[in-house]
Design brief:
Largest sheet: 7 strands, mixed
Strand content: 15-25%
Number of strands: 12
CATH architecture of the largest domain: 3-Layer(aba) Sandwich
Bound molecules: guanosine-5'-triphosphate, magnesium ion
Distance between the termini: 20 Å
Oligomer: single chain
CATH topology of the largest domain: Rossmann fold
Shape: flat
Number of helices: 14
Length: 394
Amino acid sequence: MKRIKIGLVGKPNVGKSTIFSAITKTPAEIGNYPFTTIKPNLGVTFIEHPCPETELGQKCNPKEGTCVNGTRMIPVEIIDVPGLIPGASEGKGMGNEFLDNIRDVDAILHVYDASGKTTADGNPSTEHIDPSEEIAFIREELVNWIASRLSRDWEKFARKADSTSERIEAKLMPKVGTFGLKERDIETILLKEVFPARLSIWKDEDFVSFASAIFRYVKPIVHLGNKADDLSPTEIERLSGITENNFLVSGLFEMAIGRALASGIISSPDTPLETKPELKDAQKDAIARINSFFNIPHTSRIGKIISGIVYGLLHYIVVFPVYDEGKWCDREGNILPDAFLMREGSSALDLAFSVHTEIGEGFIRAINGRTRMVVSKEYQLKDGDVIKIVTRRT
Ligand SMILES: Nc1nc2c(ncn2[C@@H]2O[C@H](COP(=O)(O)OP(=O)(O)OP(=O)(O)O)[C@@H](O)[C@H]2O)c(=O)[nH]1
Ligand SMILES: [Mg+2]
């Protein structure tokens, strides 16, 4: 099964590793200076989905993640890369190399400093820095990075591709496949925008347009205005409108919530956090500060943003493949062992291939675990479906 992967990018010292650490519960080096991170950090966070165990009235046995009171936690990979500075796409500050680590991500979380206290190269600034500049420069570096990777050794590649009678989607695959794109992603781009059919006549502006289109239609960029705990509600309101897919957050408070949960000060990470009478005054004050921050309109919890990306922006649904369509379990009797993220519009056959190539190749039919009806390979999966695949191997 393919895991969804999201990349954390941004200029140095904006709080990428703080956010990474908070959402993946993985320690990462954090420091108030540029290039604290010199190697990418990889971790896993979890998004929620209702689990069909509640319908079954029996506890599920997830292979991955947990399930608490009927809410299944589904893993999503997070990669935190070193900071990017202007000129990164031309290799400045090893930017190109850092960016190559996020080639195959499904979406990008661009972390910027909403408090405006960090310079473009990640040093503390005494002057206020307008976050709009940062948003523009990071987008430009991302686009230029893909454009330059596409145009590398293009002439020879294009001449060869043009001499075949393949569809343009197939011709482009060797170039864009390394960025995790599928033929249908190229189709989506070509439905929206026009590019020369003959690859050998593509010019610099075509590479830039194609790279922009990848971020517009395939790999969305979502902006996180971090350090918003340093801002007034009025400033938060103003910043909330500066670009689309933009959220005001606090990595610092997300970390504090994680720590409080781990040490038992709170029993749920959901805001508003509950205060217990036995807590010390300092702990109560900290909880009150966190609650009042998340009560400000236009502030968001990062976990919610990530599930919004997966379900809302990338249009994924969750499907539960089972071996026994009656008991909703695998061969060993584990109930609802798998929760698969599938793209909306996927078929029963796509699910079979996601389980295993051999299961896909041996596909005979599928059975809907709720209706117990046989469905064909073209059956369009629905969110929350419980599906048994019948293959030649079973
Ligand atoms: N006030 C405030 N400070 C934060 C927040 N998140 C991070 N910081 C501070 O910002 C500084 C940089 O944090 P890091 O997480 O190391 O930043 P980074 O973007 O990973 O930095 P590089 O790895 O150098 O690119 C540290 O001093 C953090 O404590 C936040 O939400 N609010
Ligand atoms: Mg870092």
